[in-house]
Known about the structure:
Two copies of one chain form a homodimer.
Chain A: H1 4-19, H2 26-33, H3 37-43, H4 47-69, H5 76-85, H6 90-101, H7 109-125, H8 131-150, H9 155-176
Helix pairs in contact in A: 1-2, 1-6, 2-3, 4-6, 4-7, 5-8, 5-9, 6-8, 7-8, 8-9
The structure holds a DNA duplex (18 and 18 nucleotides).
Amino acid sequence: MKPTREVLLDALETLLLDGGSSAATLEAVAAAAGVSKGGLLYHFGSKEALYQGFLDRLLVESKAEADGTLAAPEGVVAAYLDVSSVAEDPSTRSVLAALRLAGVQEVDVEAALVESFEYWYEVISRRVTDPVLARLVQLVGDGLYLHALIGTATREQDDEVVARVVALVAEHERDAA
Amino acid sequence: MKPTREVLLDALETLLLDGGSSAATLEAVAAAAGVSKGGLLYHFGSKEALYQGFLDRLLVESKAEADGTLAAPEGVVAAYLDVSSVAEDPSTRSVLAALRLAGVQEVDVEAALVESFEYWYEVISRRVTDPVLARLVQLVGDGLYLHALIGTATREQDDEVVARVVALVAEHERDAA
DNA sequence: GTCTATAATCGGATAGAC
DNA sequence: GTCTATCCGATTATAGAC
């Protein structure tokens, strides 16, 4: 069975996605995780500690996901763009939840997201030698994140965009060789 | 002198950008605008009304901004990507503030942002005939929005990306002719 | 490790004076 | 059109039992 700490962080994530930061009260998180407020406060001594725990887990997860794409058969570019556009992907869920948390005073959400995005950029750069093209790939992916955040998915069309970007990268790498 | 309503909405915007939705309490907004809580509640009868007023203004502003780019000498594509990447642009500030508001229960922030993004897409489409390419332009711009939101601006490099995208569009339009 | 009860504070909203 | 005073509910956090 999952440790209570993880269950609490899962509950926080779901509440953030459903109702934003104001919905993620200690009582609501505790209830969603099936424990009492006191039970939550045993694991995370304050709201700040809870939020920080969530950001720490986010970084571990997203770096692991980024590393994983290096071995992906479809390539890093397609893998990143795919991850970014699937709102149900566990790693994407965490990022979207963190975006909903952006701006709160308790923790530095932006710093955590910056670290995650920079890590992704480095991973992309290992397969896309032209830095401008690597940045373009990242920006398209992050645009997909933003659209996932507000729920505007134009799935079929976005698949075509992804294919176009992948082709663009392949073409450029061929020219460089 | 600016009407109090506008001053209040400006104050809300700044507070959202600085401290997220939880920092934008009625009292804080009123204080930042230089009026009392009671004074604010005369203009906006509830927090919901205040938020809705902000979203209404956002839509008017961003549609006007989109229309304006149709006459921009550098072209719609460059203009959109430029607007998206300059966090100080008034219209961009509104969008970034709205993103910080995403997920609150009082109003449908997502719907307003969707409407704004769709309007931009239509404007872009008037100059970029290939729908896949138009969507790509939009996604790059929205990626820039997201990076402006978390404060990762790589200005010089992003300018190069913008130039690359503009060239891509120009090339495609030439081929189509 | 988890619970209940409670303290202390804060936020949204109303009423009525000026 | 703006202010002060006040009420009420919600939220964070503590204390201490089990």
